[in-house]
Task: inverse folding
């Protein structure tokens, strides 16, 4: 049985790598079309909800039909987007994770990491993802208006030319499981609990660290986390990576 389980996990890891490669191709095609990458999250006109970077990629993932279901001019929780909120896409899921296809986003209580209180007020149900854009080394929820050090930030459309370390040396998208923080490809209610951390993650302590913030990256692949790098290649990072090196990979400068 251990050998069978190992073989199954190996196959799941390969599938996860393929998903990240497809996301890489889509991001590069998007950049070719617009000479920039999508913003990590883009707020709506009333600044109450925001759409994530992955929702913008749908036409480049052979999901034009789903893209047409999303009313980007309305709020994420608009009735116009009900059908999109119920959609689950295999491309956004790591087969090793056992998370549900959707999750409830609850209202934040007392501010990020300040009150210790848990909300019991659900705001919206969202489709799940395991792949998060890299915000940088800073916590994307702790200082909402701080610009991240990485590729995906609020209302900021980065160009590849701004990655001073070279595209082969910067992390672009990484894995996170629902045991760390359930996340989504679609968008968020900005007043939701750890809201922006549902779209992007940060690299600070190291992969798969139980003592790390909920916005950091983790996976169910033993000993590593898969990452998409800026030039489009996919490579795992070991749990034993030096923290300083890990942080450098998350910074565009």
Result:
């Amino acid at each position: 049985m251990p050998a069978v389980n190992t073989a199954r996990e190996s196959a799941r890891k390969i599938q996860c790598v393929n998903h990240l490669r497809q996301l890489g191709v889509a991001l590069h095609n998007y950049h070719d079309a617009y000479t920039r990458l999508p913003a990590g999250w883009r707020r709506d006109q009333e600044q109450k909800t925001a759409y994530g970077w992955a929702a913008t990629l749908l036409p480049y993932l052979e999901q034009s039909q789903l893209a047409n279901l999303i009313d980007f001019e309305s709020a994420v929780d608009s009735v116009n987007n009900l059908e999109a909120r119920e959609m689950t896409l295999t491309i956004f899921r790591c087969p090793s994770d056992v998370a549900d296809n959707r999750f409830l986003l609850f209202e934040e209580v007392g501010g990020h990491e300040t009150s210790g209180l848990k909300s019991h007020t659900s705001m919206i149900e969202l489709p799940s993802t395991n792949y998060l854009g890299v915000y940088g080394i800073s916590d994307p929820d702790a200082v909402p208006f701080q610009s991240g050090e990485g590729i995906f930030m609020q209302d900021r459309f980065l160009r590849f030319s701004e990655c001073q370390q070279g595209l082969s040396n910067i992390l672009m998208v990484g894995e996170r499981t629902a045991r760390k923080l359930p996340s989504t490809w679609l968008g968020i209610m900005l007043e939701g609990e750890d809201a922006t951390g549902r779209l992007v993650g940060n690299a600070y302590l190291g992969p798969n660290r139980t003592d790390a913030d909920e916005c950091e990256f983790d996976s169910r692949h033993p000993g590593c986390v898969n990452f998409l790098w800026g030039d489009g290649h996919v490579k795992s990072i070991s749990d034993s990576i030096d923290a300083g090196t890990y942080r450098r990979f998350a910074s565009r400068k």
Summary: Residues 59 and 67 are 6 Å apart (CA to CA). Residues 2-34 form the longest helix (33 residues). The chain has a mean pLDDT of 92. The radius of gyration is 17 Å.
